[in-house]
Specification:
Elements (H helix, E strand, L loop, with lengths): L15 E5 L6 H12 L3 E3 H9 L3 H8 L1 H15 L6 E3 L8 H10 E7 L2 H8 L13 H16 L4 E4 L5 H15 L6
Parallel strand pairs: 1-3, 1-4, 2-3, 4-5
Helix pairs in contact: 1-8, 2-4, 3-4, 6-7
Length: 187
Amino acid sequence: MPPPSMDRYEPLRRRTIALVGLMGVGKSSVGRRLASALSLPFRDADSEVESAAGRSISDIFADLGEAAFRDGERRVISRLLELPPHVLATGGGAFMNAETRALIKERAISVWLKTDLEILARRVGRKDSRPLLVGKDPLEVLKAQAEVRYPVYAEADITVETGDVAHHVAVDQIIRALSDYLQEPAP
């Protein structure tokens, strides 16, 4: 019998892990910590879109509109999915694009991070950098998004309900869910 692997996370690093979910759920903040725990690179689709466009997402929305942003986002995610395995934080609306969703399903393991809407509204209400919230009640926006997006997010390979927990707890939950999904023993 071969000796147990010295690298307990190696099976979890074979494919890109794409985090999907509503704004404020922790795709970027938890994603960075997940990448660190798994010794994988971290990529943030929103940051990559800003870099490619040479302007902020808010400016893209204001100057070109959401459709132009989503088109750029789709192209950037397609490019990122060609890279070696990493943890990818997608924008909240990225998984809604059928082409992007198909690419993620083909080239990554998708993880829907799900948290109570009132918790998310409290989190996103602290920042004014989210174009979809400008001048609006965050909870109402999130409720409307959940109604449309949750059936699509449910197509993700894995769903992890994180609640209002510390980032390291969410990372542990994701690692356990990935291990179960891949039928690997949890580290």
